[in-house]
Amino acid sequence: MDFYLSSIILIELLMIAMVFHVIRHSGFNKVQKTWYLVTFFSVMFCALAEYFVHCGYYDQKFAVPLTIITIIQFSTAPAMAVFFSGALGMHKQAKRAIWFFIPHALMEIISAPFGWIFYFAEDGYHRGNLFVIYSAFYFLSLIYLMSSMFIVGKKFRHRDVSTIVMAVVILIAGIVPVTFLNIHTAYISIGMAACLCYIYYNDLVQEDTRSDLISNQKKITEMQEHMISGLAGIIESRDTETGQHVARTRDYVKIIAEGAMKDGVYADQINKEYVDLIYTLAPMHDVGKIVVSDTILKKPGKLTPEEFEQIKLHAASGGIVVRRILDGITDENYIKFASDIATYHHERWDGTGYPEKLKGEEIPLCARIMAIADVYDALISERCYKEPIPPEEALKVIKEESGTHFDPKLAEVFLKYIDKT
């Protein structure tokens, strides 16, 4: 009996732990949580009721209250399958629980005075000649629960053979203790099986929720990328005839970033995520041109010093525009990365660039990468104010200005890998 009492205490504590977990940590909705609570409290009650009946300290003067407790226990046990089905997400389970509980309760009440299903004698509890009726209700409820598990399992995208395993666990946990007359641990095994199934289905819910979040995040990311590319394309169309500068420079920064990652250049900063990020945000490097008039942007001849000062405003304005566009729809690191590209891609390694005359590694790495891609494409492209030069000559310019205009390490990476594309 000491072992039996210890087992009952264990299952009660386990059910209390599950109740707290359902309330605080589960991924189920309010209705499902309620059904889980009803299930676990029912296991707690039935396990205690079973203990009082079979604890070995029976006194015949307690036959009446024990009979009442057993009637409630026997009426509740088959209904637990419906409770658990509701917890798993099956609809309209309240009405079905009533159909399991009420007829069985009436049958238990009617048969109790005659001892048809169970009775208490001087030596304690005994099963009646018609105990098979209770067993039939009980096994029917197990079949109902197994069916519910398979039905509910179909809605999960990440289900696997474990659904079958859980169903078998429930069936074994329910049948074995009832089949062997001298073993009174039915609700201990049922409670443990319920915990396993709860954990399994909660994991399925969490996995599907995680997949939905990943899918939604992917959609949001795609929307951001389309918005960035679209906005950059609109602005770029004001400045060039081809409108392909954005696409080409994005490819060039990817070549530089991937090459740097391969060669271990700035390995403390450049990784796969960095490459993806700079590829995505490179199109925003010239968004600041939205503040520059078409007269200056499309001027076919050489700009005056005053006009060039107006052009230079697009760098400082770019960071402001980026923040206004992205603020509230993404995180600060993302915004800062895009802002740095837009603001500082005209800074020079020797400190003679604009807008802040930053020098060397004071210039954000993403802007240093962008500077090479931007200048190279500008050199080989036709503009309203210039003719294109051959790629070979453009590469010579990049090499010659390595260490003055451009980060020498990144310029070397660009020269190394641009020929391989």
Largest sheet: 2 strands, antiparallel
- CA-based shape: rod-shaped
CATH architecture of the largest domain: Up-down Bundle
Gyration radius, rounded: 37 Å
Q: Please tally the helical runs, counting DSSP H or I stretches of 4 or more residues.
A: 15
Strand order of the largest sheet: 1-2
CATH topology label of the largest domain: Rhopdopsin 7-helix transmembrane proteins
Q: What share of the residues lie within helices?
A: 55-70%
Describe this structure in words.
The chain is built from 15 helices and 2 strands. With 421 residues, it is mainly α. The protein has 2 domains: 2-211, Rhopdopsin 7-helix transmembrane proteins (Up-down Bundle), CATH 1.20.1070.10; 237-418, Hypothetical protein af1432 (Orthogonal Bundle). A two-stranded antiparallel ribbon has the order 1-2. Helix 2 (30-54) runs antiparallel to helix 3, helix 2 runs antiparallel to helix 7 (186-236) and helix 11 packs antiparallel against helix 12 (332-344). The chain is rod-shaped.
Topology of helices and strands:
Elements: H1 2-24, H2 30-54, H3 63-87, H4 93-111, E1 118-121, E2 124-127, H5 131-153, H6 162-179, H7 186-236, H8 245-263, H9 272-281, H10 294-297, H11 305-326, H12 332-344, H13 365-380, H14 391-400, H15 408-418
Antiparallel strand pairs: 1-2
